[in-house]
Amino acid sequence: MAEFVSSGWIIMFVALFVIYFVPKNSKSLIAIAAVLLNAGVTSWIALPAIFGHAFELTLNAGSFLGNILIRIDDLSAWFILIINFTSVTGVIYGKGYMKAYDNSPFKLTLHWWLFIIFNLSMVWVCILQNGFAFLLAWEIMSLSSMLLVIFDYKNGKTLKAGMKYLGQMHISVVFLTIGFIWVYSDTGSFDFESIRSFFSTNNHVWLFLIFFAGFGLKAGFIPLRGWLPLAHPAAPSHISGVMSGVIVKLGIYGIFRIIGFLQSDYIVPGVLILFLSLITGIYGILNAAIHRDFKRILAYCTIENIGIIGIGIGIGLIGMGNGSPVMYYLGFGGALLHVLNHSLFKSLLFFSAGAVYQQTHTRNMERLGGLIKSMPQTAVLFLIWAIAIGGIPPFNGFVSEFVIYSGLIEGLKSNSLPQIILFVISLAGLSTIVGLSLLTFSKAFGTIFLDTARETLPHKPKEAGYLMLIAQYLIVLVMLSVAFYPQLYLNATREILMGVSNFEYLSLSAFSSHSAKISSINMYSILLIGLTSLLWLLRSQVLKQKSQQIDTTWNCGYLAPNSRMQYTGKSFSKPLVKIFNFLMIERKQFLDLEPGKNFSTKRKYLSACYDFIEIRFSNFFVNRMVYSANCFSFTQNGRIQSYDLYGIIFILAMFILTFFNILV
Amino acid sequence: MLSLILILIAATFFSGIIIRTKSLASGRKGPGIFQPVSDVIRLFRKGVVYSKTTSFIFRIAPTIYFASIIMAMLTIPFGQNKGIISFDGDFIFFAYVLALGKFFSIIGALDTGSSFEGMGASREALYSMFAEPAFFILMGSLALLSGHTSFYQIFAALHLGSQISYALAILATFVLLMIAMIESSRMPIDDPKTHLELTMIHEVMILDNSGFDLGLILTAGYLKFAIYGALIVNLFIGSIPLQYSVPSFFAIQFLLAVSIGLIESFMARFRMSHNPQFIVALTSVSLLIFFAVLLILEKFI
User: Fold this and answer.
1) Which domain holds residue A493?
2) In the A/B pair of chains, how many CB contacts fall below 8 A?
């Protein structure tokens, strides 16, 4: 089995080498082959691991790192399978998407190099069980994804988004490093197992919170989510699909990993995560509802879904604290299932949005409209994920949200009053999130695909390429399997949950009765589909004999409507913005008519919505930091002599401090 | 099965009674109470007109909307009789399957490219979003009170504890009635008889539907009323034997229809900007029920 693990490196190096030398149109083929091979190999190990055959290996990495434990248990396996699937569909889609860049072979080479490294580093993040090595893999993953984001590096905005992403990822690394060093200073080992022993002797939640902050930055919890809405729109679509589908989930993976090591004190972090996730969810979807850049909508929607996953995690933790196996199972199981679901529909979402972008070259939905006629397949795919991500039956989003809802309702049986109140508030919050996502996605779908075109586009849009469609159909297939055969996935989550913590008394009977109930909803989904098709048949039979006319839309008697008069996405969400104007900052720019002037000339009107946390909090801190950093700008004077001097001062300081025994 | 039949029967006269009440209140004789049903039958016989801008979404939306209402109807129990679909957490399914129908009616309206229909769609999405928490807090509180999580079990066990629960049932009636008004776009949220497209919500969304599709949408509307009516009836008849509960079902449905008719006759609709406030206030009534449940269960120490 050890060969399998090292084969990942070999495949990578061979692929990197080959990609450099092959002609430009086969670079992507090599990348596809490499990703497929890697995915095949790791899935080969991960598949048995998910059903309890954990794979373990110790790697000697020299005197500095010591022995590194590599372990693929069921939790890692779950995430590895998600990574593999998303990467494979991503790379297939990417081949179609990157066709436009065939004239810049250097950029392509770099892009596919980074993609392969990125893919491998994500897998390694999941299997390394040593803090130091984990941080290395984590760092490679962050760096490679950052470089992938700034593919279009000549665009200032893209570069800025990349820098912001880089900065925030390093804050995350700082938190994680502090966490690992804290454990190291206490136990003398970087091994993950030492975190468990740390938690068993020290009962404080601070370490957990530090890890949560580190992983939460990656996952995008509030208020740590600043990079998401910038980096996702900036990246090429298959990269944003993989990033949003997987990278964000690795933050969740980390949180799960740490939860597995917790020994006591479950309630406080549980309540905290539940509350934070609720706010994250509502904040994310509120922002998604108002934007008109459709890739930004998707990015905010990722934040919302992280909130939903977090609600599941919170329920699970509180369940552990209360000693309720059912809550534990429903909360964590729902979270794990939603991780899978979200990675599926979020990559599908970015892929179909990418197809729209590729054909229209705009991310502003107000300029689009009527695309359902020129891109029918993309439209149907878009519709499918819109329903799935809204969490409404009959697709997979409903299954995981139903599990999380069941967890919340189970939580109502708790004996503590604050918990009951929290759960009822969460119930209301989760339903609001769903209501808002309905609004968001009916707006997005309606504005982009329905109506008639609002502007004449430079090129006439046509259906996306077959590779891009194949990747999307693959995802839809898996989505349908989750929706209509959830038993398979529920069993897998149960196996994972048996292993993830020392919560031993997860009784089989409690599980099986709940899992049967949850699986029964797929029957009702099938019933719904059957009923709809029956009605549809009836309708077409009835309408066969009736007259059918095509005419213009009824415009209340007005006879010369044009496409500019249609309702826009902005007007669709305007009432919402008005109601939540304390959370959504809308800034307008326009010139009023000057006094004494009776007739207006052609004028401009600009309005844009801004992120509340960004404007009110983040910018405040960043501005202060920049201000204080500016005081030291004299040190960066660009003279080599000064930089030499800094080096000498540093070395001297090290000598002197060691000499006086100040630095141990 | 019983609930299904009862709801179907109630749906045939519910809207008719509302219209009749309104007619009588305004001093007219009004149409017969089965007029809405014959309207729908007439529509089913008619041909259809489609707008040029529409796609298949517009054609399929009414069908899915209708199917979702049927699915929601199947979850409703009747007293001690289970609904056809009954499982733990079926009220979540109920709310979500209705949401599916709403989603399709919204995108169906957007498909016509008419700014009026877009306006209606936007309002429908917003108001139903605000109504969601009220329903979930209400059902959560009832689940807490009864210790069960499916419609059938909740309603069957609601009044086993104490008689105070009837007081709760009255509060819950108010919430459900208001949700029904919001969902079916009646007064005081929306005036179905208005003639100005700018102030419509639901009516403006279906401006372009005709023939069979319009018939489906109207039927779904009648059913929706009867479904919420049945939910309200269920709040009271938990353990009452059938020979009393079936007549009281029709009595309560009749009362509801009359009261909706009276509300619509004597009340003006709200200003559009006041609607969200009203709907959010509904959530606070739900919270009131929740705190009452906590008091009953003596969770407050």
Assistant:
1) 264-535
2) 244
